[in-house]
Structure to design on (605 residues):
């Protein structure tokens, strides 16, 4: 589409322009109506792409001079509103799930979700972060007087992995949106409770929005405030401090000064411990790499139920690939990635939760942590 | 030589080195090569020399994604040395898409700029790269490919996390010069390290890194 600037000189030219506008139904930007076109006064008309040549030919024929004010209207629109460039904009109840949201908005979102789905969703207090922010999880399921088995999912343990909290929000929306129409989901919520912690490392997440996009750890200060942050995924009590960690607080894999030294770790651990006999599955969502990781990171000795763990993971990876062809690799962290200790996933398995997985979402390094927002939808859809 | 499961971390790390090297050699403002899959990996332990990996890689040109680029690579990590770069050899099967026109256009565009180009945070926090900065982004892949190749060991896996800053420096000769600060993410330590890299580029001659050094983390803000 182009916008043309024309100054008609004669009454005949005015008439011709009015005719053109009316017959071709062109979009007059200035003046507003064809009847307001005057000789000697500036005209701006937007001409749809397919008609541009015809209109220009007609103007030439009538010796009406023009110049192109805007050569490409769409380009200008895209430039001025970069966030709406994606053709798949998922808005549900006013919340845009195909964008990354700061923590303030996520808090508001949780309140809204509970309000709009009060028969299925309750928001609960989990604990407080180092900087004293409240950690909430959402409990999703059909209320029942019998005790129900639980699936736990946490996102955002590492601040820079923005696709992870985006996934948790998407997941919640998807489940709730399709609960009534999808019998699988309604049976799921009948038999199980889903506990979702959309952002575990809240302080870190906020810091990655405000100060350092590539921050990973939480924000506890060490050494008199000269050094910040523990890697929460090295801080759990699973072979803590043994391998794949640093005891130097400036390292991105600093494991803290003891297992569960961090308030965020304690909040999660205490809760999971209290419910462990009912928890079937522990899921923790990270990026990047495209992996479904099984225990352990601290040793290559496989867990007792390794065969079953691997089988379920392989089926999950296959289903994931089936959606958009994205390939995920499956295996233990120690074999596929590196050695690490103190991870939440290892800890969950060690205390007896049978199915414990780390998901590393898109991509494999091209964008890494800075995954474009236009990949939120496909990433989340395939992971569901 | 011992066959490795392609999912094993040592194979993935060697592949990252090969890709970095290839990006340096064959990349440019009009060509960015990306690893699609590691098809096969073998390892040979050579006494008194080091560990050599034989890789079969499937790559794609990000500007020509429908095509597959197959290549084989050999990566030799020298024994005991943390300071010598691995020796890398890569053979690309078939021809890569020509970038002659895009290169010329980019070259002329930059040469005709009145003010030297300056940009930061590519991509931005939300993963966006404005289209006119995409060639600068791809040239950063070339720059970081060199740094990754030069600084990798069997215990590291580097990726370019973000271009923090880039500044064009006008030259009296025919090369374009860009001074980059790139952030490299190292997977094993999870560290993000800033590196200052100077790249010289010319459409006929390709890219050359003239200077590179790691800068202290504090320099970031």
């Amino acid at each position: 589409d182009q916008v043309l600037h024309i100054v008609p000189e004669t009454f005949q030219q005015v008439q011709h322009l009015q005719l053109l506008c009316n017959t071709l139904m062109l979009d007059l930007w200035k003046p507003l109506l064809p009847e307001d076109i005057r000789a000697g006064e500036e005209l701006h008309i937007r001409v749809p792409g397919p008609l541009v040549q015809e209109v220009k030919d007609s103007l030439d024929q009538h010796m009406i001079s023009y110049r192109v004010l805007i050569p490409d209207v769409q380009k200008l629109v895209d430039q001025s509103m970069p966030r709406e460039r994606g053709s798949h904009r998922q808005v549900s109840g006013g919340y845009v799930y195909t964008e990354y949201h700061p923590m303030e908005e996520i808090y508001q979102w949780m309140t809204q979700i509970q309000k709009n789905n009060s028969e299925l969703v309750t928001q609960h207090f989990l604990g407080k972060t180092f900087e004293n922010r409240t950690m909430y999880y959402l409990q999703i399921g059909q209320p029942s007087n019998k005790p129900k088995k639980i699936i736990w999912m946490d996102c955002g343990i590492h601040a820079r992995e923005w696709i992870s909290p985006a996934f948790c929000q998407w997941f919640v929306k998807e489940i709730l949106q399709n609960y009534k129409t999808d019998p699988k989901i309604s049976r799921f919520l009948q038999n199980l409770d889903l506990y979702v912690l959309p952002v575990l490392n809240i302080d870190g997440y906020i810091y990655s929005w405000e100060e350092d996009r590539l921050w990973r750890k939480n924000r506890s200060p060490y050494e008199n405030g000269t050094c910040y942050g523990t890697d929460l995924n090295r801080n759990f009590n699973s072979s803590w401090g043994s391998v794949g960690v640093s005891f130097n607080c400036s390292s991105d894999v600093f494991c803290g000064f003891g297992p569960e030294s961090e308030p965020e770790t304690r909040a999660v651990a205490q809760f999971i411990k209290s419910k462990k006999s009912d928890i079937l599955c522990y899921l923790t969502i990270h990026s990047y790499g495209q992996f479904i990781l099984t225990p352990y990171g601290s040793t290559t000795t496989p867990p007792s139920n390794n065969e079953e763990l691997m089988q379920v993971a392989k089926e999950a990876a296959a289903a994931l690939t089936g959606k958009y062809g994205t390939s995920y690799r499956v295996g233990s962290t120690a074999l596929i990635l590196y050695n690490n200790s103190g991870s939440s996933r290892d800890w969950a398995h060690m205390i007896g939760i049978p199915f414990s997985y780390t998901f590393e979402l898109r991509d494999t390094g091209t964008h890494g942590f800075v995954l474009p927002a236009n990949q939120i939808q496909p990433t989340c859809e395939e992971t569901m | 030589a011992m066959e490795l499961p392609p999912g094993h971390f040592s194979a993935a790390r060697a592949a990252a080195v090969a890709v970095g090297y290839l990006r340096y050699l064959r990349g440019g403002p009009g060509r960015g090569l990306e690893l699609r899959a590691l098809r096969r990996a073998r390892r040979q332990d050579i006494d008194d020399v080091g560990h050599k990996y034989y890789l079969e890689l499937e790559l794609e040109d990000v500007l020509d994604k429908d095509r597959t680029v197959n290549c084989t690579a050999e990566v030799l990590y020298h024994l005991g040395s943390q300071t010598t770069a691995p020796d890398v050899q890569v053979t690309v099967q078939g021809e890569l898409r020509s970038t002659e026109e895009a290169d010329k256009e980019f070259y002329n565009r930059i040469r005709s700029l009145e003010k030297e180009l300056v940009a930061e945070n590519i991509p931005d926090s939300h993963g966006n790269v404005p289209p006119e900065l995409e060639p600068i982004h791809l040239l950063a892949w070339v720059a970081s490919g060199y740094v990754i190749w030069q600084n990798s060991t069997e215990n590291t896996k580097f990726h370019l996390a973000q271009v923090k800053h880039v500044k064009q420096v006008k030259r009296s000769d025919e090369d374009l010069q860009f001074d980059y600060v790139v952030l490299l993410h190292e997977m094993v330590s999870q560290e993000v390290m800033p590196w200052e890299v100077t790249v010289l580029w010319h459409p006929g001659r390709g890219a050359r890194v003239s200077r590179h050094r790691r800068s202290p983390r504090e320099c970031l803000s």
Observations:
- Helices of chain B lie at 9-26, 100-111, 134-151.
- Chain B touches chain A at residues 7-9, 12, 16, 34-35, 37, 62, 121, 123-128, 159-162, 183, 185, 187-192, 220-221 (CB under 8 Å).
- The first helix of chain B runs from residue 9 to 26.
- The mean pLDDT of chain B is 93.
